[in-house]
Request: fold
Amino acid sequence: MTTMKLGTVSSGDIEVSNVKGELEVTNVNGSFMISKASGSAVANTVNGDLVVGFVSIDLRAPMAFSKLSRNVDITFPAVVQATVKMKSDRGEMFTDFDLAVDQSQPKVPRTSNSGLYRLTVDDWVYGKINGAGPEMLMKNINGNIYIRKAK
Reply:
């Protein structure tokens, strides 16, 4: 399998199309758009759009998509199977897949320091698309997360 690493720091946009293999994309002050991808991706950006469209995925490879601002927008084939973990601190999460959300109570880690306890609520959304499959992490600070089904 081919591995492709792409990155830029200042005012550069990355556009990739018709690529197959493992993608590793990092961009600080720009957008990236990946279309007609086959395989897997790990993609991180600070400022700019993060848009990825897959025609097929590697069922053995976990994926991760993270942003600081604007939207995370990922499109998968309708038959994709995935286990997702998502969080948007100041945004919403949307999908047109039938996502089976884990309904268990939020995890509340508790740490002690000098007799005081710090409680932190784990507000990640956990779920499965079409049963289960490779793990996919999606995190956004200031924007929405979209998981779309390819038409």
Summary: The radius of gyration is 16 Å. The chain has a mean pLDDT of 88. The chain has one domain: 3-149.
